[in-house]
Design brief:
By secondary structure, the chain is of the alpha+beta class. The protein folds into 2 domains: 122 residues, Zincin-like, CATH 3.30.2010.10; 53 residues, no CATH class. The protein has 7 helices and 9 strands, in the order αββααβββαααββαββ. The strands form 2 sheets. The chain has a 5-stranded mixed sheet with strand order 1-2-3-5-4. The protein has a 4-stranded antiparallel sheet with strand order 7-6-8-9, with no helix packed on it. Helix 5 crosses helix 6.
């Protein structure tokens, strides 16, 4: 196997993956980013710092970064490196705040950019952080076919794809049920082509 890999490298040239990093197709872990995460959490939550995986995702188009809560991963848009090192650090901390907020409140639903996230941002040294970025990444237009509407408060959200599992209105769950899922707040899904149905 090693022989085959060295033949491929001989044909394609040296790998563009920095030493020590791990590549998984379009995602590439970056040990420098992971070290920054550990330093940021050194006085806040060292055990979380040891769990976080961070790196670059070449499939990102408009998003500067994403935090995957279930597996403590942070992926950043490679174009951030062309903007500035400060923007890389700020986006990394922005996404890390999502993981820290979830780690601090594991048993209840929290708003993605709610009070818990704002407190985590402040603790990580980025108080007053905005929930969105204004970076020059080219937008990809995708038509949103589905509308999710709450039967209680009437709030609605548009989605590109049909949800794969039952979803409920977070606002109503937080207001009336302590942040826990309740069937009576389950979204009604509708689209141009289909009749409204519970989902």
């Amino acid at each position: 196997m090693r022989e085959l890999l060295s033949q491929i490298e001989g044909l394609l040239g040296p790998s563009h993956i920095p030493p020590g990093s791990v590549s998984r197709g379009f995602r590439r872990r970056d040990p420098l980013l992971e070290e920054k995460v550990r330093k940021a959490l050194q006085n806040l939550d060292p055990p979380l710092g040891a769990l976080v995986t961070a790196g670059w995702n070449s499939r990102m188009r408009t998003t500067a970064g994403v935090a995957i809560l279930g597996c403590n991963q942070i992926w950043l848009h490679p174009g951030l490196r062309e903007v500035s090192e400060e923007e890389v650090d700020r986006t990394l901390l922005h996404e890390l705040a999502h993981l820290l907020a979830r780690h601090r409140h594991p048993h209840r639903r929290i708003e993605p950019h709610g009070e818990e996230w704002r407190v985590a941002c402040r603790d990580l040294g980025i108080p007053g952080e905005s929930r969105t970025h204004r970076l020059p990444f080219q937008a990809r237009r995708m038509k949103r076919h589905f509308i999710l509407r709450c039967p209680v408060c009437g709030r609605h959200h548009e989605r590109v794809r049909r949800p794969r599992r039952p979803l409920a209105c977070l606002h109503c769950c937080l207001t009336h049920n302590g942040g826990l899922y309740d069937e009576k707040f389950r979204f009604v899904v509708s689209s141009k082509d289909l009749q409204p149905e519970d989902y």
